[in-house]
Amino acid sequence: MKNYKESDYALNKFSEGIVYKFADRIVEVTLEDYLAENPGRTAEDFLELKALSDEIYHEQVMQENRTSRLDVSLNGLEETEALATPPLDTELIHKNESKRAMTAAKKLLDSGELTEIQRRRFILHFFKGYSYRKIAAIEGVFFTSVAESITAASHKFKKYFKNF
């Protein structure tokens, strides 16, 4: 299986813009580039395209994983990497609910139901793609503190999402 950190999906997901990877170069379209080239469009339109590109790259990775695992012998299975549970945003995208999820997330962020810490960590994790460990390092706190905050925010988000 291809190294996740080197995959097109990871490259696109963890960049601020939309990444197009060609044989000879990588091009990143930022929000500013998009708005300059598309007058009348909004940042929300850009975020929808970003979510769509993440979905496309994720499907490619999933397809590669499906076919690459067919070549593994039964005796070699103990050497394969276990797949992690997909993050909440990816799970919702795959249910074709990205627009609804964005609306729910915006409502939750504006509602005041999240503490300032939960709000900040929710944004860093789900919108900027930072890992729990990276957030903990940035804030100088323990990993478990970050995990607890994001878990609490995720539960609140799921309640909001059900109402849409």
Describe this structure in a few short sentences.
The chain has 164 residues and is mainly alpha-helical. Helix content is 62%, strand content 5%. The protein is built from eight helices and two strands.
What does this molecule look like?
The protein has 164 residues and is mainly alpha-helical. It has two domains: 4-79, no CATH class; 88-162, Arc Repressor Mutant, subunit A (Orthogonal Bundle). Helices cover 62% and strands 5% of the residues. It contains eight helices and two strands, in the order H-E-E-H-H-H-H-H-H-H. It has helices at 8-13, 31-37, 43-69, 88-94, 98-111, 116-127, 132-139, 143-162; strands at 18-21, 26-29. A two-stranded antiparallel sheet has the order 1-2. A hairpin with a 4-residue loop joins strand 1 (18-21) and strand 2. Helix 5 (98-111) crosses helix 8 (143-162) and helix 6 crosses helix 8 (143-162). The N and C termini lie far apart (37 Å).
Task: Please give a handful of descriptors for the protein shown.
62% helix; 164 residues; 2 domains; mainly alpha; single chain; two-stranded antiparallel sheet; 2 strands
Write the SSE topology.
Layout: H1 8-13, E1 18-21, E2 26-29, H2 31-37, H3 43-69, H4 88-94, H5 98-111, H6 116-127, H7 132-139, H8 143-162
Antiparallel strand pairs: 1-2
Helix pairs in contact: 5-8, 6-8, 7-8
